[in-house]
Target: Fumarylacetoacetase-like C-terminal domain-containing protein
Amino acid sequence: MRLATILERGTEVPVLVDPERGVVAVADLTDRRVPSLLTVIEEDLYDALAAAAAGAGPDAFRPAADVRFTAPYRRPRKIWGIGLNYVDHAADLSESVPEEPASFIKGDHTIIGAADEIPIPPQSERTTAEGELGLVIGRECRNVSEEDALDHVFGVTTVLDQTAEDILQRNPRFLTRSKNFPGFFSFGPEIVPMAEVLERFGSIGEVEVSTVVNGDQMRTNTVAHMRYSPAFLVAFHSAVMPLFPGDVISTGTPGAIHVRAGDVAECRIPGIGRLVNPVVDA
Model:
């Protein structure tokens, strides 16, 4: 049972998604007030909601094709991004993988969801889209060990992380600016619980991530080929600062692709989901 948010008459509604039966609103599964999926994660409500959904009748569900998905939530405490985490991608940029994770923080104003437009800012003549695996923190952690790190991850999601690459190339100290234009972080539509990931794949290292543009340009790699594993990234960043429920760590891209107005960018992760966004001029 996966988590998502849909739009109904202009209102964002948290839902659970059963791949077989469809979508059921969280409000139909509990008497508690649950304003967003972030509440589900912060207040550890998932197990009770999933049990209620499993016992719900077929009339409680709607076909997923009949609803409009949007960003899972809008106000995480933090979004961490990781650069140059696949050796192959670093080689493409004629750079070496750094001795420690090359990380940066993005503001929540960058968040968009499935089918929302990625706007190319007028300050950039070369913006790239980057498909990535996102980790959604489920339990607060600080100085967690690598061995225990994934126990603090609720689940994973598809991400499109954008970069104004020409700005970054002018000076590596411009990383924050190049990463923080509006619309430069799309995630969702679904958050897949870690238990499902491990049941499906056996190991998170078997997950395959692709950046796709216009259905034909594609850069693909598997998580096992990351220089810094998801567990390492959680442990490393929890030593920098506390990680809170709903925080997202975007783990790096197998390849960035230059996008222009009129293109369609996609993050494709088989078994996890597809995130698709059109590209426009801001």
